[in-house]
Amino acid sequence: MTEKRVRLSLGAATDIIMSGLTAYERRHTKKEGSYVETGGELWGYVRRLPSGERLYYVEQATVSVFARRDHESIAHSPDETAIKRKVMQRLRPELTLLGDFHTHPYDDLPDVKSAAGWGYSPGDVEYWKGDDQVWEDTGNRPLFLILALCPLKRQIREAQQENFYVNILRFEIGHFRLWLHGVAGHVTNGQRRLSTTTHSTVHMDPLPLNLRNQPGSRLEERPPVSPKA
Fold it and tell me: How many domains does the chain have?
């Protein structure tokens, strides 16, 4: 099985993280009562490295506008992806559709650990394997990314990123912990298959981010403090 390496541009990494954190904080700013999953498309190119690895370079991530979403699932719109594909052919013809990303939001760290929320669910597998268009567009080699996230009780002062597994990055931003999981698809004996969480052939390269948590850098909205008379 060919080893795969996933590398994100600064812009793509920022877009994915921004969409996940914004959707999570929506429950505070809009008072909706619950966070929602979000997601979108991955654009870039695939190259063969001198080492023999297949490099998935994600240059850009676009957030789904028409997706149906709630706090447990998201369903992308094929029509929206088709429109974006035509636009990309005119604006960035060097980029192709690589796959998609979506988030797994959780209430707290124990919930993530209990559900192994950084991994993919049976629903994810069913959706990915049934998305005929993305398999056709990618020549049966799609890339899927999961961004799991949850707030921490207190902010981590020394923010860092590390490979939780070779295919999962773990890092902190403000008072949130995040996991970015790369999953590659392939076809064997006519069957669509996905890389596993453990013993994966996918390696996530570090994100090109300068992660620094300053005191007071929590992300939620706070009401303004009235000046003293």
Answer: 1
